């Protein structure tokens, strides 16, 4: 006589829950789909099924415990009677095998959250620095107001699905397997629409444009993503709306260049201003400021304005502003301007008629003469 308790790896006092747990573990281990072509596993799988078919049935278990046999336990009877607990076990196994493809059909379809949406929003530099309130138009699916998302013109326009009798799933027999699958007629809802809503044509949703207010915080930059909860697509079966994700893009500024939280700019000064020194007005992102340019300032010198940059997003403080001075050489001179510059060059000991290479040759000539 086969020892069914030994086959399942349990003792004779095992509870129904312990029997079911042991069976599921062994059935998953020796299932033919996981061991293709392995005759030993196939035989073991049949033996496990035979043992559980007996011990899971109270009457057959009592006969087995008392007489060592279960009336009607032949292979045909044992594998054809897949009702109640045994069918439930196989439903659990298929859920493990197929990630809920079959097991999920054992439950009625539930409300689902709507899809998330993305919107790309372009800002200018000032809006990114100081923050902004923007209103955008979002095309999306919304819950139909006429039928309140039911898809039916009236309440009586919804009937019980005739395919699954309202269960949301149907049971299929495949060989000696009995499995549950989501009903394809009602898509798991257990209901069908007999008189659809004219507004949404039974979908329960309509396509509309929604105006959404976006609050852009100070200090954002390209790549920052803002989340607006509940402004995505409408959910299914009464589920909540998805979310809206706003991707920010900051346009280039004609004067300022941004580097992190700092702002860079270039400001021209004349030759005389650079030579003699002066005080100049420079633009900032929030107005203007004045900087002193010392006498003899070379082109390329950088001046620093503290806390005149971009606010730190989600933090405290601001970046700085850096101003690069460049000497603006006039392209055209009046005769008098030229005369004065030539006089300046002569006083300075410069020969205005000589170019750079001429001066290099003179320098090397003096070095060779030494």
Structure, described:
This protein is an alpha+beta fold. The protein folds into four domains: 4-81, DnaJ domain (Helix Hairpins, Orthogonal Bundle), CATH 1.10.287.110; 117-250, Heat shock protein DnaJ, cysteine-rich domain (Chaperone, DNAj Protein, Chain A, Ribbon); 257-328, Sandwich (HSP40/DNAj peptide-binding domain); 335-369, no CATH class. Helices cover 29% and strands 26% of the residues. The chain has ten helices and 15 strands. The chain has helices at 4-8, 16-30, 39-55, 58-67, 75-80, 84-98, 125-130, 271-276, 335-347, 356-369, and strands at residues 117-123, 132-143, 158-160, 169-174, 177-182, 191-193, 205-216, 225-228, 244-250, 257-259, 262-270, 278-284, 287-293, 302-305, 321-328. It has a four-stranded mixed beta sheet. The protein has a three-stranded mixed beta sheet with strand order 1-9-8. Strands 2-7 form a two-stranded antiparallel sheet. Helix 2 runs antiparallel to helix 3 and helix 2 (16-30) packs across helix 6 (84-98). The longest helix is centred in the N-terminal third of the chain and has 17 residues, at 39-55. The N and C termini lie far apart (119 Å). The model is unreliable at 72-88 and 98-106 (pLDDT under 50).
